[in-house]
Amino acid sequence: MLTIISIELYKIFKKWRTYIGFIAIAALVTIIQIAMIYEGQHSVEFMTRSLKDTFLFTGNLLNGYFISYLILNALAVHIPFLITLVAGDLLAGEATAGTYRITLTRPVTRLKFVSAKFFAGIIYTLMLIIFLAALSLILGILIFGTGELIVLNDEGITLFAKNDILWRFLIAYSFAALGMMVVSTLAFLFSSLVENAIGPIISTMAVIIIFLIVSNINIEFFDKVRPYLFTTYILNWREFFRNNLDFSEIIKDVVILSGHIFVLFSLTAYFFNRKDILS
User: Fold this and answer.
1) Is 112 part of a structural domain of the chain?
2) What is the largest CA-CA distance in the chain?
3) Residue 38, domain member (yes or no)
């Protein structure tokens, strides 16, 4: 199985589109870092201006942690598109190239074949998130240094001590990676149904956009639907930047997202196993 996965990873990184995600993240993170050099202090002052009459702020609030938090907020919604560029091509690319029949003549079951493709896509997704985390934190700390993290959310303004931040980022990035795995698996499902990679990419992004709208519109009619949409949970990495963490809710979110991955992959394996391979 490991050999098949390594072959699939080789095939992924042989294609130029694989590197679009890494290049885009590197460019966007660098641009945001440069912009914050000139405008970052204004962002901090805007967040703290209502409290300056009551509290005295000292230390380095414009630091690598603050910049990394802003970047994660800015890119979390855009990363799915970069993931679908690869995940949507995993199976559809074989159909487009006409290599299904040759590939499946090897002594490998269809389930092993589709599982290897799936795990290769998951590994690529993890690599993309790790790249984002490393570049954001390392570059941010090198340029802006470290310090306390100031966060604005529905609890108001929260200030985290320097020694209470890094573990939050590590878990937040891990949770974000789980959410992006759902996106990868959804694109993988669409990839098993069509013969061209464009369809899965467009379909996945369309589903995400529709689900995000339903998840965020405050209409009572959608209240019964939201718990079943993965977009309701993929941005809940923000929960790790609260004073009072509700671990029962976090565990529930993890279980629901993991359930989505299992169901979507099971559907993919089912459809692919019944697929009539003509070329």
Assistant:
1) yes
2) 74
3) yes
